[in-house]
Each structure stands twice: as C-alpha cells, then as structure tokens.
Amino acid sequence: MDCQLSEVESRVLGCLMEKEMATPDYYPLSLNGLMNACNQKSNRNPVVDYDEKTVYRALDELKQKQFVWQSDASRVPKYGENFVKKQNLVAREAAVLCLLLVRGFQTAGEIRGRAGRLCEFADLAEAESALQSLAEMGLVVKMPRQPGCKERRYAHLLAGEPVAEIEGISVARPEAVALEVMAENERIAALENEVKELRFAFEQLQQNFAEFKEQFD
User: Fold this and answer.
1) Alpha-carbon distances, residue 65 vs 1, 2, 94, 112 (angstroms)
2) How does DSSP classify residue 169?
3) Separation CA 59–CA 14 (nearest Å)
C-alpha cells in the first residue's frame, strides 16, 4: 500500500469496516458512534480510550488519503469507509482485514471462528484463501511461529511492518498517543520553518523597498 496508517487510523478504519458489515442499519457512523466503536471493551485488542479529538484527527487523515468519506445529509456529520472499494476487496477479504485491524494478530482458525457477524467461512481453507489473497495484495503478512504456539498468526500491514514477539516477550510498539504527538511535532516544526522563511523573505522585501526608495529621496 502506498501510504501507511497510524495505529489510531487503523482502529478507526477497522471499526468503520466492521459496522458497515455487521450493523448496516446504523451505518455510516457519527463521530460519537465511531468513538464508542473504537473504545469497545469486547472484541478489541488492544483496548483503547480515544477521545473525540483523537478520532476526528484520524478521520481527517483518512479523508485526505481518500479512505473515508463524510456525509452531511443528516443533523450531524456521518462517516463511512471507502477503503474496501478502493482496494477492490470481496466480502471475505474485507472481513479478514477488519478482524486484523480491530483484534490484532489472529490465526486462520481464530479468523474463521470470529468472522460470523461479518462474513461466514464455510471451512478453514476458505479463510486461508482470503488471507492468501490479502497477502498477495501486500495487505497482510504471516508472522513467524512463536514459542509455545501451534499455529502461525497473521497481521495487517496497513500500519507498516508488525512487531513480533521475541522469545515470548512482546515488543511494544509506540503508543497511539505517542505517534500522534510525534506527527504533531513534525507538523509544528514544518510550520515554524515556513514562518522563518516567510519572515526572511519579508525582511528582504523591506530592505529592497528601502533601497529603491532611497534612489528617489
């Protein structure tokens, strides 16, 4: 995929995909509805506690990437995902990717067992086929087998290369809030540089004007 998502953007996108498939009557989602979906205590890994500001920022970034659309037809803005259509995913592929986005690493068996509300898999082979298709698209990767685990797990690649466990010890990724602060710091630094350049250009313009004026004094 050409662009990489943050952890917050991944959760927001996954929740939009989930609600579109599982509860279409309540889709698209308001900002508050989407925040509650992100912060669910069940069927989520990791469990998070985003505020509306955090979710809105992620929505804004996803809109710029054209993965999310906004409707202003109702009393409050509603949001839906455009990722499935842009990537030409079929229902089973969208269901698998959705589970990886909202529930973290999964085995093929776990995906088959947990996908019922989104898409029914006739057997394990069908789930594995969907995973293989996503892997060929560069959206999913099969992780190395971990100590004490019978089956290998899969992870999505929308937020970059996933961090595996080393010798049974989980290597933590930067928290979503840390990634957000880092991104904000980068934007602020870019704005500060732009202001400096504008100030310098203005001072040069003032000096040139003063020299030009002296010619007629």
Assistant:
1) 11, 10, 18, 30
2) E
3) 12
Could you tell me the mean pLDDT of each successive run of 10 residues in the chain, 217 residues long? 90 98 96 98 96 96 97 94 97 98 96 95 96 97 87 95 58 51 72 82 81 73
Which tokens is 174 given? 């930067």
0.70 exceeded by pTM: yes
What DSSP element (H or E) covers 30? strand 29-30
How far, in Å, are 87, 101, 137, 150, 161 from residue 6 at the CA level? 18, 11, 19, 30, 12
Let me know: does 142 contact 154? Beta carbons within 8 Å.
Answer: yes
Question: d(Cα 109, Cα 151) in Å, to the nearest integer?
Answer: 9
User: Which one, of 85, 67, 79, 82, lies nearest residue 37 by Cα?
Assistant: 79
